[in-house]
Amino acid sequence: MRARLYAFAGLLVMCAAGGTLVRGQQPPPSQGGIGQTPSPLPLTQTIRERGSSVTPAFEGWYYDKDGSVRLLIGYFNRNLKQEFDIPVGPNNRIEPGGPDMGQPTHFGTGRGWGVFSIAVPKDFGGDKKLTWTIVANGFTNAITLHTKSDYIVEPFEDPANKNTPPKLKFNESGEAVTGPPKGIAEKYSATAGAPLAITVWASDEGAKINVPEQTGRGRRGRGGAAGAGGDAAGRGGAGRGDAPAIPPEFQPAPPLALTWSKFRGPGDVKFDSAKPKLDLDGGEKPSGSVSGKATVNVTFGAPGEYILRVEGNDSTGAGGGGFQCCWTSAHVGITVK
Description:
Elements: H1 2-12, E1 20-26, E2 37-38, E3 54-63, E4 69-77, E5 84-85, E6 92-95, E7 106-107, E8 110-120, E9 130-136, E10 139-145, E11 167-169, E12 186-190, E13 196-204, H2 225-228, H3 231-235, E14 256-264, E15 269-271, E16 279-280, E17 290-300, E18 304-314, E19 327-336
Parallel strand pairs: 12-19
Antiparallel strand pairs: 1-2, 1-10, 3-4, 4-8, 5-7, 6-9, 9-10, 11-13, 13-17, 14-18, 15-17, 16-17, 18-19
């Protein structure tokens, strides 16, 4: 419950992108990169199309299923139309022990929830910490990563309703991955300029207890009228009792969805659909469980080593509604010739 309260507090200060902010700096006109003079905190930096900052986000720490301790980390890109490729180094570093600890080098727009994790020793507590620093558009932002008790999260199960993250497979008979990313889930080979087809088999069981009655507008992403284009969302008339159409950005999250993005790599990456449509196996089950598969075709602009990230979301949506459960992130490696 404590982690849930802190997650909610993080939503209230989302402009800071979570965690503990170390500094936000902007260079004088003649400088760029590191070594800037102080500027207003990132809380004062507005979201705009271009020219704003990228802030690291500390989601919290957790016990992995094998008992190890891991830090869960994301970011917030305040630019609506500007993505970044920032190589590991002075402008994208984790210290001490880095600069490379598996962080992304590509930063898409908006909030990236739990895009990677770092394993730390079980005795990492106390005063030990890591610091992730990102420099973008001349702004330097850094966040501390630690294992203080107030920041423990439970990404594998929501204690309130026993919901669990979706399960993803890259081979129908292969091992499923679930929860935060850890290592490379699958490896592929591709040729620059030629599409590579990647199929993901996804499933989700839904919440187990304390589930509201799944009827009408009360349904959240489980096929209710508001989410499935019924009277509440589809007709949009002005007659008796008719509600206006709901804009896409306010539609309830679907029961199961996949989103692909570039994580690392030397060239451009193009997806035929970053959010491929899932072909469901017989539709949604009465129990709320759902499963299906989706194929994405991805094309790489240059040879080299790439990492892609696929996020599987249930009806709680991106970031689990800010409570760090329940969604799954997986990294896949591609060698492009």
